[in-house]
Structures are given as structure tokens and as C-alpha cells.
């Protein structure tokens, strides 16, 4: 006889599994990341930063593609910013630009980035991301973009990010599954889910990229990210 598990049961399993694997593979005493999460909580920012496992994944992607120029859309308290920046070359030739709407968030993230010893290579720009993107003219272009901001603007962010990336560059868009809600448009018509759908519909006919969505489960529950390669 099969056992029907509730969403609460599944959440506990996902979280337990994340914590178990992380206990072997991640540093539980990473002061910079612990500080970023602590200050986020103390300052009352939403608990929407990437998970430790996702943060490490982003770090490894930067290293794996030998990225030197990274663009991040959505900074919050700087957790993912630190993970991304740490993957850049150790000789200081790398550069990360993170775009953040809220001045308060930017202030907090800058302090956390500085405490992590990364302020010389990581810059936070304040303002509406779509406006900031249009002012950027990187030379050479970016190697990687991580999009984790308001989901309603996913498509606009993606189009601008693609313009700013080199051929062979990578774009990662977070939170594109949303507990499976994105795949049920007849039930879930909220603006965030619709923002993801707009991006997917655009990508269906975009011949300049190759993409896939990877579903994830863990302490952030059931979600996923889109991985795009610029042809």
C-alpha cells in the first residue's frame, strides 16, 4: 500500500535531504555567508535568497566556464552576490555588477560584500534594473548573468542580458517552476507565474539560445531554474 505524503511531509524531506548533503559538501562555518543571512533576517528582508546549495552551484558555474565578467539582477542582502564573486579569478581581474532596486538592500549588501573581502570586484548599482541594464556597455561583454529579481520582468531582463553577453555566455533565471504553478496556467494566473510564461513563450522561437529548465527540491521547496546558452 502506498503512503500519501502531505506537502508538509515533502517539505521536511526536501529540507532534511538538503541539510544532509550540505553537511558533507559545504562549509557550515562560512562566516561571510552566515553574516549575509543573519543581516538579511535582522534587517527584515524577505527570506528569498538562494539556498546554500544553489549558491554553491552558482559559484561552481562561474568557475566551470572561467567567467571573468558576471552580471546579477537582484541583490537583496548579497548572499548570491558573494557566491558568484568568489568564483571569479583570484588575481583580481574579474568583475561582478549586481543591480538592486532598493537602496536599503544595496546598503546592506555592500556591507556584507565588504565583510567578505569582495568589494574590490563586486559593485552594486541602485535603481530599476531595466534602466540600469540599458546604460551598461561592458567591454568585454559579460560571460554570465544570474536573474533573480521581480518575475514579472523576466523577459525584459533576459533580452537585455542577452545583448550584454558574449557568444557562448550563460544566463541563469531563478524561480521558474514555482511549486509547479507555472505549468498550470488555467489555475495560477498570478503575475509572477505569467512573467515566467512570457519568457518561455519568447524562448520557444528564439534561435539565438539553447535552454533547459532544471527542477529543484530542497529547503526552498519545489522550484527550478532556467539555463540558457547564447549561441
Question: Key features?
Answer:
Rossmann fold, 231 residues, seven-stranded mixed sheet, 8 helices
Question: Quick recap of the structure?
Answer:
With 231 residues, the protein is α/β, with parallel strands linked by helices. The chain is 42% helix and 23% strand. It is globular.
> What is the number of helices?
8
CATH architect. name? 3-Layer(aba) Sandwich
Which regions have little confidence, pLDDT < 50, spanning 5+ residues?
Answer: none
Provide the gyration radius in Å. 18 Å
What is the CATH superfamily? Vaccinia Virus protein VP39
CATH fold label: Rossmann fold
In the sheet with the most strands, the strands line up as 3-2-1-4-5-7-6
Under CATH at level 1, the class stands as Alpha Beta
The coarse overall form would be: globular
Major sheet: size, sense and barrel closure?
A: 7 strands, mixed
Q: In terms of structural class, how would the helical and strand content be classed?
A: alpha/beta
Q: What is the count of structural domains? A: 1
Give the SSE order as H and E letters: HHHEHEHEHEHEHEE
Mean pLDDT figure: 96
Instruction: Write down how many β-strands occur, each being a DSSP E stretch of 2 or more residues.
Output: 7
Q: Kindly estimate the percentage of residues that lie in beta strands according to DSSP.
A: 15-25%
Multimeric state: single chain
Q: Whole-Å distance between the termini?
A: 49 Å
**Helix share bin:** 40-55%
